[in-house]
Automatic annotation (TrEMBL):
<protein>
    <recommendedName>
        <fullName>Leucine-rich repeat domain-containing protein</fullName>
    </recommendedName>
</protein>
<dbReference type="InterPro" id="IPR032675">
    <property type="entry name" value="LRR_dom_sf"/>
</dbReference>
Amino acid sequence: MNGAFHSYPSTESALSARFRGHRDRDWKEWGERHYFEAAAQIPGEATRAWVSRQKLNYRAIADKNALAHLIAANVDQPFLEAIGQLSRLRRLELEWPFLGTDLTPLLALKELEHLSIDSPRKLSDFSRLLELPSLRTLLITNPKRMPNIEWLSGAHHLEVIGIEGAIDSLYKIESFAPLAGLRSLRAVLCVSTRLADKRLSPLAQCPQLEYLSIARCAPRSEFELLRAARPDLVCSWFDPEAWRKPVIRPAG
């Protein structure tokens, strides 16, 4: 095995943490210092907060104007509308379950750079998110009603795109063709996915792409062709040893 492959586990882990935004994440610290039972408990000067909706415990969130990073769970439409008033927000993580029905309130977040949405069960159209002028990272997990990724074809400002299934449910991507040629794209995150056309060649056309985290959703020959076209790209499936390990596939 090529000696360069020995660095992939640590390199890939570092890149995954970096592009998913977990590089500086300490869950213990978040639990002890930034988690609040109700939005009213968040200090006015706080820049970070983590809140899970229980009845109306989110109601004071719109007054927390210093917030730059918010983790919010069980978000419904009224909670989302309140979040849309946080004009200084740069990072927003909408954790499972996300119950919002209209993403329009987020369009007011002109400084938002990082957005993740987990299990948006009531939404099928995400295209308006591309109107966010500062957005660079967009991660959507388990979007059961999203029909395809065609809406990403003009997302030249995005640096990280993650469209992923859940642990027990694969998301079907028809083709990576909509991502071909995206000028700023540096990372594609697509674990728990199926790829209908089995072609990886569109990704070779993304000039800045440096990291691919993906399910084994294409033939080995496709990964070999991609590696030949983009030897600078980091992907675990470029390692021959990875193909000797059994793959456990979730249902769906």
